[in-house]
Amino acid sequence: MNSQDAPVVPDEERNAFRVPRMFRMSSHPMVLFFFLFFRTSAIVAYILGMLFTSSFMLLFILIFTLLAMDLWTVKNVSGRLLVGLRWRNETGVDGESIWIFESADPNRPRNTIDQKVFWYGLYIYPAVWGLLAILALVRFQFLWLSLVAIGISLTSVNTAAYSRCDKDAKRRWATELVESNSSGFVSQFLSRVFVKRFFG
């Protein structure tokens, strides 16, 4: 067969087999990759370590490090870039915990792939850790259960915080929308009354 007879495959189709579609459609593929990488790596390390190694301390350090990196990445990078939300918790002068939520402009274009993967990943991974906790209880592996408890805790922090942040952002956007519409309605009403009163 002659090289001139071979069909020409566009670069886009050739690359389609190398990069999953989800990453090609993402606005921030590297952020999406690391969002999934740290979480998945911690679970895979736990499962493989439980099956193939007896060095609990090494696995504890590895999994704890992966979960800590996940916590920081999701809190400071992934949430801001993938869904336009950010949270932080500060301590007030009186020792009270103060939650601060930030959100991007609601008119900012959003990528549905980024949003779906972020929200599904935020809820699925703590559930997987929960299943692993049940498995550790059934097998009476209480030492491993302590590691699973850390996994549940560190993944659930971002889940709880981003859920509260999302509710707060939606509440603020709805309040701003109502205020802008009501002020627009009031100004239209007053202008009509003014026009009728003096010019009508």
UniProtKB/TrEMBL annotation:
GO terms for biological process: protein secretion; vesicle-mediated transport. The chain crosses the membrane at residues 30-49, 55-74, 117-136, 142-162. GO terms for cellular component: Golgi membrane. It is a multi-pass membrane protein. It holds the Pfam family DUF846. Keywords: Golgi apparatus, Membrane, Transmembrane, Transmembrane helix. It is found in: Golgi apparatus membrane. InterPro entries: TVP23-like (IPR008564). The keyword Transmembrane helix applies. It comes from the Eukaryota. The keyword Membrane applies. Belongs to the TVP23 family. Golgi membrane protein involved in vesicular trafficking. This is Golgi apparatus membrane protein TVP23. The gene is tvp23.
